[in-house]
Each structure stands twice: as C-alpha cells, then as structure tokens.
Amino acid sequence: MPAPLVAIICGSRSDLETVEKCAALLTELDVPHELRIISAHRAPALLDRYVAAAAERGVRVFICAAGLAAHLAGGVAARTAWPVIGLPMPGGVGGGLDALLSTVQMPPGVPVATVGLGNARNAALLAAQILAISDAPLAERIQAFRADQTHAVEADPLNEER
Ligand code: RP5
Question: Whose CA is closest to 33, among 126, 137, 124, 149?
C-alpha cells in the first residue's frame, strides 16, 4: 500500500456517512488516503500529534469535515503549512451556515480552501487536483473523470437532438 497523500479528518462519527463519499471518490481516482475521527474540541492533543505525524509520513493535503462550531479545518491549518480543505457539515444553525462561516472565515495568513456544505465529492476532487500539479497520471485520471461527467450530461435523453 502506498503511503497516504491525503488525510481525511472528521470531527465526529456522525460525520462519517458524508465523509465516506469523499474517501470513495479518492479511491476511484486512485489517490492514497486515510480517514480519522478527531474532534478539534474533544481531543485537541490527539489532533496535535496526528497532524504532525501525518505530515511526517507524507500526507500532503488535509481534508477536514466538521459541523456546528467547526474549528477542525482551522485548527489543522494552524498546525501545518500543507494545503487544508474545509468541508463544512450541514445541520446546525441555518442548515449549516454556522459551520460554513466557521470554516471559510479564516484570518489572513492561515488559509482553508472551503467547499460547499456537505460537498464531500468536491473536497476529494480539489485534493486530487492539488496533487495532480505534480502527478501527470493523476491529472489524466481527473480529465477522464471530467469527460465522463460531461458525457453523462450530453447523453441525457432530454438533451437528445431532434
Ligand atoms: C462537530 O460537531 C462534528 O464535526 C459534528 O458535525 C458535530 C456534532 O458532533 P456529535 O455531537 O454528533 O459528535 O464537532
């Protein structure tokens, strides 16, 4: 097994159903990854140890999924200079507006690239696209994914030329 390049961290087991869609797309794109459940609030010391160790082992992109007072992505971004993608989880105030703002509104100097509420697949794609900068075969797999997606739209029976 190649060493993971992407670490997916979620704040709670209750985030898993969404986060597994992110892991599934990374698997489909053949991107080595690992998944952990580490709450920024309930286990800050573990988060500290994990981020340092993961970067040491070769992880190059972190995807952080959290809801409510979603400090996980910001907390990870504070601990590493590798890219961090925030995946805010729906369900809190305003359907997840709390998590969206907590994740996206980082102070200057510590960025978190935030995807839409619960948009686990975009988090996976963005991580893959970052890694594809220096991985030509991965870039080709992403292009193929895009082509399939385009073909699916074009092939919809409602779009048939008459
Ligand atoms: C966040 O609080 C988690 O990421 C989760 O989305 C939310 C609720 O967590 P649980 O109370 O279900 O553990 O930290």
Answer: 124
CB 26 within 8 A of CB 124: yes
CA of 150 to the centre of ligand 1 (A): 35
Domain residue extents for the chain: 6-134
Compute the distance from residue 137 Cα to the ligand 1 centre, in Å: 36
pTM exceeds 0.90 = yes
Q: pLDDT, tens digit, for every residue of 61-92?
A: 999 999 999 999 999 999 999 999 999 999 99
> Residue 47 in contact with residue 38, Cβ under 8 Å?
yes
| H or E, element range at 120 | helix 120-132
Which of 10, 47, 68 gets mutated to test ligand 1 (max ligand atoms within 8 A of its CB)?
68
Architecture label for domain 6-134? 3-Layer(aba) Sandwich (3.40)
Element containing residue 45 per DSSP (H, E):
helix 44-57
